C-alpha cells in the first residue's frame, strides 16, 4: 500500500482516522494504530510482518535483560544480542546476494544462491529498533516495559516505508501521553496533501517524462538529452523522496507524533557538506549518533577521523543499495 494509492486515500486513512478519533482512551488509540500499522505493512508483506514483530520482540526482551543485568559485561552481552539479531535480518535479506555474488566474482567460481525478496521498509525499521536498544544501554531513554508500545513505535505506518528514520528518544513520551489539537490536525493534513501533490503532480510526471526522453535500457542520443535526463532524474528523486517524508511528518502530526524534518531544500546547498545537512537528515543523524561518534568521531587525531569518515560513508553508500555502484557513490561523497 502506498500513500498516493486510492485504497489508502479512500479506505484505509478515513477508516483509521474515524476509529482513532472516536476513541478517547489512549490505550484504545494505540491499539487501533498498531492494528492498522500492521495491516498497512501486511498489505504488501503478509508474511514478512512476522519478521518485524519478531525483531521487535527480541530487542524488547534484550532491553529487559540489560536492565536486570548486574554487570557491565552482562549489559554488553544483551546489547550485542539485540544488535546482532536486528542486523542479521537486514544483512540476509538485503545483502546476502550482493556478498555472495561478489565472492563468486573474486573466486571465479559460480555460487548458486537464490536471493530472498527484500522486505518493505526493513532498512528503516531495523535502524529504528537499534536506536531503542542502544539508547536503553546508554541510559539515554527509559526502558519501555510495554511490548505493545515498543511495537507501535517500530511499526507506526507513516514513517515505516520511506522514513524519516525516527529515533526512539524523539517519540517515546508520545507513546504514553499525546493530544491532537484542531491546529495539529489541520496543519498535519495540509502537510500530507503538500507531499501528495509533490508525488502525484511533480515526481510522477518527471518520471514519465524521463522515460519518454530516455527509454529504459537506452543511451542518450545527444548532449542536451543527457543533461535533460540528469535534471529530470534529480527532480524525480527529490520530489519522490521528500514527498513521502512530507506525508509521513503530516500524518504523524495528525496522530499526535512530532517527527523531525528530513529535507531542507537540499538543491539550494552551497557545498557538499551543506547538501548532506539538508538531504535525508534523519539518516545522517543516525550514522553520526550510532556509528561515527561510537567509533571515536574526531577525538583521536586526523588519521582516526579519516578512518571513521571512511567507514561512515562506505556504510551510507551500502545502505542505499546492495551493489558496488552504491558503495562507490558513498566513497565519492567521502572524498568531498
Folded structure, characterized:
- The chain is an all-alpha fold.
- The protein contains 13 helices and no strands.
- The mean pLDDT is 92.
List keywords for this structure.
336 residues; 13 helices; globular
Short description:
This protein is mainly alpha-helical and 336 residues long.
The radius of gyration is 21 Å
Number of separate helices: 13
Beta content = under 5%
Q: What share of residues is helical?
A: over 70%
* Tally of strands: 0
Q: Mind summarizing the main beta sheet?
A: none
**What ranges have pLDDT less than 50 throughout 5 or more consecutive residues?**
none
Structural classification: mainly alpha
Summarize the helix and strand pattern as letters: HHHHHHHHHHHHH
Indicate the overall shape: globular
Could you give the distance between the termini?
38 Å
Mean pLDDT: 92
Which helices and strands, and how do they pair?
Elements: H1 6-22, H2 26-42, H3 49-68, H4 72-107, H5 122-138, H6 147-155, H7 168-176, H8 182-213, H9 223-255, H10 272-276, H11 281-295, H12 301-320, H13 324-335
Amino acid at each position: 500500500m502506498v500513500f498516493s494509492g486510492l485504497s489508502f486515500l479512500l479506505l484505509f486513512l478515513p477508516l483509521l482516522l474515524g476509529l482513532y478519533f472516536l476513541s478517547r482512551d489512549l490505550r484504545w488509540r494505540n491499539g487501533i494504530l498498531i492494528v492498522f500499522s500492521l495491516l498497512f505493512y501486511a498489505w504488501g508483506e503478509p508474511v514478512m510482518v512476522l519478521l518485524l514483530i519478531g525483531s521487535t520482540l527480541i530487542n524488547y526482551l534484550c532491553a529487559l535483560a540489560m536492565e536486570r543485568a548486574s554487570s557491565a559485561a552482562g549489559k554488553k552481552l544483551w546489547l550485542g544480542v539485540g544488535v546482532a539479531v536486528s542486523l542479521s535480518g537486514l544483512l540476509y535479506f538485503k545483502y546476502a546476494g550482493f556478498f555472495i555474488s561478489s565472492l563468486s566474482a573474486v573466486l571465479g567460481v559460480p555460487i548458486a544462491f537464490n536471493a530472498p525478496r527484500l522486505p518493505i521498509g526493513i532498512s528503516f525499521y531495523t535502524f529504528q529498533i537499534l536506536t531503542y536498544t542502544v539508547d536503553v544501554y546508554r541510559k539515554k531513554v527509559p526502558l519501555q516495559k510495554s511490548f505493545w508500545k515498543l511495537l507501535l513505535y517500530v511499526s507506526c505506518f507513516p514513517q515505516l516505508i520511506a522514513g524519516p528514520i525516527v529515533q526512539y528518544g524523539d517519540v517515546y513520551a508520545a507513546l504514553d501521553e499525546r493530544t491532537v489539537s484542531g491546529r495539529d490536525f489541520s496543519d498535519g493534513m495540509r502537510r500530507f496533501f503538500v507531499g501528495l501533490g509533490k508525488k502525484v503532480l511533480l515526481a510522477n510526471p518527471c518520471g514519465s517524462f524521463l522515460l519518454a526522453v530516455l527509454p529504459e535500457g537506452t543511451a542518450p542520443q545527444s548532449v542536451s538529452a543527457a543533461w535533460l535526463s540528469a535534471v529530470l532524474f534529480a527532480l524525480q528523486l527529490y520530489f519522490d523522496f521528500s514527498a513521502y517524508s512530507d506525508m509521513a511528518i503530516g500524518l504523524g502530526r495528525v496522530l499526535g507524533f512530532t517527527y523531525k524534518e528530513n529535507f531542507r531544500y537540499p538543491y539550494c546547498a552551497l557545498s557538499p557538506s551543506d547538501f548532506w545537512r539538508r538531504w535525508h537528515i534523519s539518516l545522517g543523524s543516525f550514522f553520526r549518533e550510532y556509528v561515527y561518534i561510537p567509533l571515536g568521531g574526531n577525538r583521536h587525531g586526523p588519521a582516526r577521523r579519516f578512518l571513521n569518515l571512511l567507514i561512515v560513508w562506505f556504510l551510507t553508500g551500502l545502505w542505499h543499495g546492495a551493489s558496488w555502484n552504491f558503495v562507490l557513490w558513498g566513497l565519492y561523497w567521502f572524498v568531498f
